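Provenance

Sequences were taken from public entries as deposited. Structures were produced by running a predictor on each sequence independently, with no templates supplied. The record for 2-heptaprenyl-1,4-naphthoquinone methyltransferase from Methanosarcina horonobensis HB-1 = JCM 15518 is shown for reference.
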Amino acid sequence: MEEKLTDEEKEYYSLTRKAFAALAPFYDIIAAPFSGVRDRVVSLTNAQEGAKILDVATGTGKQAFAFAEKGYETVGIDLSNAMLNVAKKKSKFKNARFEVADATNLPFEDNSFDVSCVSFALHDMPLSIRKKVLREMVRVTRTKGIIVVADYGLPESKISKFLIYHFTVLFEAEYYKDFVRSDLEPLLNRNRIKIIEKVTVLHGAGRILKGINNKL
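Predicted structure for 2-heptaprenyl-1,4-naphthoquinone methyltransferase:
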């Protein structure tokens, strides 16, 4: 039985599809500051040879390409067909494929992947959607598999925190404010993702969290 969407969730889906359809041709330029983080995510994952990778909210595929370049079989999913069309046109990897899919209801069997990753996407989601996405990532990742989240954070320094926060709110959606003020680690822990490694990136404006899937 399908869950009934809240008004906030309906608004999220509507805005996401419209916004990313418009942004798709320019998204790689907008997301250029994140390019250096992609390889850090792959390196931190430390996946074994032959691992199957899921890249959630892949957008134009940059994170998926970083995994595929290292030889991993990679699947990237996204709500936006327009974004995926860009990814497919740019892809030069036979070991990377892309599918339109809702991350809150992934079209994969349980335990389908060795690694699941979501990069700079959770901050674009209301909390209820974030929870559903993490729950689905846990479901489709094998027990003791790796789950990696890369997204915004804030540095410890009060001045840096103030500057980065007020700069980022200029171009990010309203959900960013709630996301960056919330405590991401307990949310991951409640979804049976045990954090085993943390890395700060983008001079404190970003973070990568590596977890083990502790589902029963």
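The two ends are 23 Å apart (CA to CA).
The longest helix spans residues 7-23.
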